[in-house]
Specification:
disordered N terminus, about 775 residues, 27 strands, single chain, globular, 6-stranded mixed beta sheet, 8-stranded parallel beta sheet, 23 helices, alpha/beta, about 15% strand
Length: about 775
């Protein structure tokens, strides 16, 4: 029986079979995703469909009240950067109570290396070589973000980075295809935890698809021009690994791919992503990328830009009005088909279905009475795991004369512009991390030395840089307060104070590196040395004759030639996050034995870039110890990285025995096992990473000198030995040849096992038919 409250018009519409009668999602179809979405789409007008493709942010151009009205009118599919329930709830209410179709909103945010709790930046996480730890980071980040109403994150960042001039090197996991792919998978598993429909899970949207880390010259947003074979073998696998792990979204890169912008690249988004890889999720443009097709010169106006993007396969348009303004007219003119609109809408609705939003629109927003009293309460942080992961992320580069670990009873001079900087410790893309809740190195050392007989002295010593143009650049986007604050004293006055402080101490700890904004989006650099202000400070400190310990804080590889020669110890800490100061102190004092390994090579100079370990073999390679004439080398500088991929010292020492292979040959579909004994030969417990590399000795195309194919991280007590077993299967021998055929070729393979990519044991086996 019809409700008495049902209007006459509605009854008439029902009787006439009007498609707008009772227009809303059908709960009875909730068990069948395809039927549910098909039924909903049959009820949608063109304008409502286009509205679902719009992803915008609350801001000056779209105040919250106006946005709510847009949502109620069915003109918005989701927002990004709305990270509290008081903002989100009115928008979701507008969607499911006031809009005609009651389609819920989605709320997205950049949850990259933490949310409320900031963990180490991507390079730091990768330096742990601990997949369980990285999975845990993503799990905690998802729990915190979902508690703030977030449904989807634009992460993980899996762009292979081999040019450290690129500022976004900090966000990703380094230079190696295998390691980055493993970490991509771990992050997706942590974010989604089996299903993005769980209350404490968020959907992963892997980025930046594709090849963003290969921008020419390391200059952000620049072109990428790359052979298909290199693309398939080196740069594409991490994106596919994330998708194979279940990532429900893909964020599209801002760069061109072989002459076609990614946001207009049908081959990339349709042929490769959907047809070859079978991706079934939602694609999202980067910020303003569709209208930027006009700047690229492939569209003459926004109308053409919208047409190119929707046909290429860009489902959601972020932060512009191009789709909402242009797509309805393009459909009416016949230039864009309704089927092309439907393809995009189906993926947006499918993502919302997968996130559980149709079943429970307020799944992650909850009830008003359950809202946190204080969003920034310290109790909402996960400090212990942040400290634990940060300790594992640090790489000991030098330790002459066992300078480290430090004695808590010593007098320590802590100097440097990063010694007491809370905001820099967070790193960029630090989510909702609060600088004032971050532990600086100074605070960490003070806490560690409390109750001890030692003494901590402190002097700033230098500004991050003396160049005001750089300071102005770094502070450009910070409206509340400047991120880089200059000490008004003269550089010499600060150095004099630091030297006087150092002379009173037993040892100097200098916290130097980059302001976090120096390794950020659009923050490419032409030089990778420490800024001159910090170099002058270090040289003055060295002249005191006191032991000099460098604590590096940076978001990219730096060139550290003078530092390597003159520092007594050097610890790479990247940007270590909320608990960074405590974690660094733990390592400096030996409460934690450093176990990090470099996920990216550190070059000797900018002129040497790119410097990555798995480069292609050459006809005239440089051979160490032999004349360099008529070989591939730079004659004015030693060859190879200053610190190679996979490198990292410990407070103890390790040795590797000989490799034992289970067989000299591997048949198709078979396997070979490699066994090796690793021993802790020092006097402290410690962890190390045993790394397995393969070289295809003779192939149909030029192959790399070596490639990482497996690794095991192992903790050993002093004197303890352990035999490790690595299983090599045919899959690990496969590659894409010149015809982009994927397979393994018969022949000899050199298997290498080592504690870094250079110092290895070698054995050989052959793949046979």
């Amino acid at each position: 029986m019809l409700s008495s409250k049902l209007s006459y018009a509605a009854v008439a519409a029902l009787a006439l079979g009007c498609p707008f009668a009772f227009a809303q999602p059908n709960p009875a179809l909730m068990g069948d995703k395809k039927a549910f979405i098909d039924d909903l789409m049959r009820q949608m007008t063109l304008d409502e469909k286009v509205g679902q493709l719009r992803l915008i942010s609350i801001g000056p151009e779209m105040p919250a009240p106006q946005l709510a009205e847009e949502v109620a009118a069915g003109r918005v599919g989701g927002t990004f950067n709305s990270v509290n329930h008081k903002e989100q709830r009115p928008l979701q209410e507008a969607a499911v109570q006031r809009s005609r179709l009651k389609i819920p909103m989605l709320f997205a945010y950049d949850v990259v290396h933490g949310h409320r709790t900031s963990f180490p930046i991507g390079l730091g996480l990768a330096s742990s070589w601990n997949l369980d730890a990285v999975r845990k980071v993503a799990r905690i980040a998802a729990q915190e973000a979902s508690a703030d109403g977030i449904d989807l994150t634009f992460a993980p960042t899996v762009d292979i980075a081999r040019d450290p001039r690129w500022g976004r090197t900090s966000e990703g996991f380094g230079e190696d295809t295998f390691l980055v792919s493993q970490l991509a998978r771990a992050m997706v598993e942590g974010f989604q935890n089996g299903s993005p429909a769980k209350r404490d899970s968020i959907m992963a949207s892997v980025k930046h698809f594709a090849l963003y880390g290969a921008v020419e010259g390391g200059r952000d947003y620049n072109i990428v021009d790359m052979s298909p074979m290199r693309m398939y073998n080196d740069y594409l696998p991490p994106y596919k690994a994330a998708i194979d792990a279940g990532a429900g979204g893909v964020m599209i890169a801002l760069n061109t791919v072989n002459g076609v912008p990614a946001s207009a690249n049908t081959w990339l988004l349709q042929d490769l992503l959907r047809k070859d890889w079978g991706f079934k999720g939602v694609t999202v443009s980067d910020h303003g990328a569709i209208t930027e097709l006009v700047n690229h010169g492939v569209a003459s106006n926004d109308t053409e830009a919208a047409k190119l993007a929707i046909k290429a396969g860009v489902d959601m348009s972020m932060a512009d009005k191009v789709y909402i303004k242009e797509l309805p007219g393009l459909v009416k003119s016949g230039e864009v088909s309704m089927a092309e609109i439907d393809n995009a809408v189906r993926e947006v609705l499918g993502a919302k279905f997968d996130m559980g939003l149709f079943k429970e629109p307020f799944l992650r927003i909850g009830k008003p009475e359950d809202d946190p009293v204080d969003l920034k309460a310290d109790s909402r942080l996960h400090r212990p795991p942040a400290r634990e992961v940060a300790r594992e992320s640090m790489v000991l580069l030098e330790n002459r004369n066992k300078t480290l670990p430090l004695n808590k009873g010593a007098t320590i001079a802590l100097v440097g512009p990063l010694a007491d900087s809370q905001v820099d410790m967070l790193g960029v893309w630090s989510g909702q991390g609060v600088a004032k809740q971050t532990v600086t190195l100074k605070s960490g050392l003070e806490a560690a030395m409390a109750g001890q007989r030692g003494k901590l002295l402190h002097a700033r010593g230098a500004n991050i840089t003396n160049r005001e143009d750089i300071v102005k650049y770094l502070n450009f986007l910070n409206w509340d307060e400047p991120e880089v604050t200059q000490d008004p004293r003269s550089p010499q006055a600060m150095i004099d104070e630091a030297v006087a402080t150092a002379k009173q101490a037993d040892v100097i700890v200098a916290a130097v590196g980059e302001a976090r904004g120096m390794s950020h989006e659009s923050s490419s650099r032409t030089e990778l040395d420490l800024p001159e202000s910090q170099q002058a400070l270090l040289k003055a400190l060295k002249a005191t004759g006191k032991p000099l310990v460098l604590v590096l804080m940076n978001g990219r590889p730096l060139t550290l030639n003078w530092e390597r020669e003159n520092a007594d110890a050097m610890l790479e800490t990247w940007f270590a996050g909320t608990e960074g100061g405590h974690a660094i102190a733990d390592v400096l004092f030996g409460d934690e034995n450093p176990s990090g390994k470099l996920p990216i090579s550190l070059p000797r100079s900018v002129g040497q870039i790119p410097t990555y370990y798995n480069h292609s073999r050459l006809g005239r390679p440089f051979t160490p110890g032999k004349p360099g004439n008529y070989t591939s080398q730079y004659f004015d500088q030693p060859q190879g990285a200053l610190y190679p991929f996979g490198y990292g010292l410990s407070y103890t020492s390790f040795s590797l025995g000989e490799i034992k292979l289970s067989a000299p040959t591997m048949k198709r579909g078979g396997q070979v096992q490699a066994r090796i004994t690793v021993k802790n030969t020092g006097d402290r417990a410690g962890a190390t990473v045993v790394q397995l590399y393969l070289q295809d000795v003779a192939a149909s195309v030029v192959r790399p000198v070596k490639e990482l194919k497996d690794f095991q991280k192992v903790m050993l007590q002093p004197g303890e030995s352990r035999e490790l077993t690595f299983t090599i299967r045919e899959e690990q021998l496969k590659f894409f040849n010149a015809k982009l055929e994927y397979g393994a070729e018969v022949g000899e393979f050199k298997l290498q096992l080592g504690l870094d990519s250079q110092d290895v044991q070698v054995a050989s086996f052959a793949l046979v038919d």
